[in-house]
Amino acid sequence: MKKILLIAGIFSFSFFWAQKSENYLQIRYGSICCGTPSTDPVMNYVSKFQKKNKIKNLEIYKQSGLGREGEFHLYIGTDNFSKKQALAFTKGLQSAIETQNNARKKNHDGTVGFDETETVKKADLSNARNLTIYKK
């Protein structure tokens, strides 16, 4: 019994400390009538940015179950970026989101929300429900 508790404690401790970032950008996916928009434009931008800047590990979490039509949030860790990279990333991300929102059908498709000045802390995410690692 003691071994099981010890192993469970080690796994939970290692999961908590495996999160390297302390600051995350929040992207909100909302619905109007028929589900949320695709994550493809945002994730395509993120993967291109990673390749261009040679960033290997980027933490991305998804918080689901926020509404009846599948609303969710994405959280992207930014601590691996330099200040210059962080500024370029947020500007490019804002542009990708604006392009996606402008191309949507106004009365049918959902919206993507992003505020570049809003950061979410690691402590807030540790208390979040339905939080999983986002698979690209």
Write a structural description:
This protein is an alpha+beta fold and about 140 residues long. A hairpin with an 8-residue loop joins strand 2 and strand 3 (about 70-75). It contains four helices and five strands, in the order H-E-H-E-E-H-E-H-E. It is about 40% helix and about 25% strand. It has a five-stranded antiparallel beta sheet with strand order 4-1-3-2-5. It has helices at about 1-20, 40-55, 85-100, 120-125, and strands at about 25-30, 60-65, 70-75, 110-120, 130-135.
Major pleated sheet: 5 strands, antiparallel
Low-confidence stretches: none
The helix content, as a percent range, equals: 40-55%
Approximate strand percentage: 15-25%
Principal-axis shape equals: globular
User: N- to C-terminal separation?
Assistant: 38 Å
What is the CA-atom radius of gyration, in angstroms? 17 Å
Return the structural class: alpha+beta
Mean pLDDT, nearest integer?
84
| Largest sheet, spatial ordering of strands | 4-1-3-2-5
Count of runs of 4 or more consecutive helical residues: 4
Task: Give the tally of β-strands.
Answer: 5
SSE pattern: HEHEEHEHE
Topology diagram in text:
Blueprint: H1 2-18, E1 23-30, H2 40-53, E2 60-63, E3 72-77, H3 83-102, E4 111-121, H4 122-126, E5 131-133
Antiparallel strand pairs: 1-3, 1-4, 2-3, 2-5
Short synopsis of the structure:
The protein has helices at residues 2-18, 40-53, 83-102, 122-126, and strands at 23-30, 60-63, 72-77, 111-121, 131-133.
Name its key features.
5-stranded antiparallel sheet, globular, 136 residues, 4 helices, 5 strands, alpha+beta
